[in-house]
Amino acid sequence: MTAALPDAPACARNREPILAELRRLLADSHQLLEIGSGTGQHAIYFAPHVPQLSWQTSDLPEKLAGIRAWQQAHPADNLPPPVALDVEGQWPSLSVDTIFTANTLHILSAQAVEALFAALPRVLVPGGQLITYGPFRRGADFGAESNREFDQWLRQRDPASGIRDLHWLDALADAAGLIRSETIAMPANNHLVVWRRVAKK
Questions:
Q1: pLDDT (tens digit, 9 = 90+) per residue, 62-107?
Q2: Domain enclosing residue 22, as ranges
Q3: Residue 179: strand pairing partners
Q4: pTM of whole model > 0.90?
Q5: In total, how many domains does the chain have?
Q6: CATH code of the domain in which 37 resides
């Protein structure tokens, strides 16, 4: 059955180190929205390990069939059906304490990344967290030559994409009322970066 499912090989390679951090980061979380769930493989692997929360998958409409197929093959009580979400369009009516997105910010256009951050206050509760995974740079410092080459490949394919500058993302987060709380080095020159929405006083 699983042979017919859409497959993203990177999910199997990075899921264990990501999960090791998510266990801690999600310990007090109850409602999570995953943006850009892709095939859904991350969700079906992570959700059973954090049973206290509801893991809501989302992606563009054309991706939802693949996510549903994975969830049907690997059902979990805390995995509701996926919802359609275009970060530059209409967002579902949700209120969550965590937003998780993996390997998306460098694929999305810069305009889409701006739209994602701008929408956070409508979805993420005060005190909530945005957890992102992928490659990041600090100005011209990509951290590794492989990341610099990957960035060049991304921009040749789509000039609006590319590895994002953490300082630029911090500015977008600040405008949305979030501050960066953790930057966690991960295998293969990736990072988990966490921003928290400042709680109302």
A1: 999 999 999 999 999 999 999 999 999 989 999 999 999 999 999 9
A2: 2-197
A3: 196
A4: yes
A5: 1
A6: 3.40.50.150
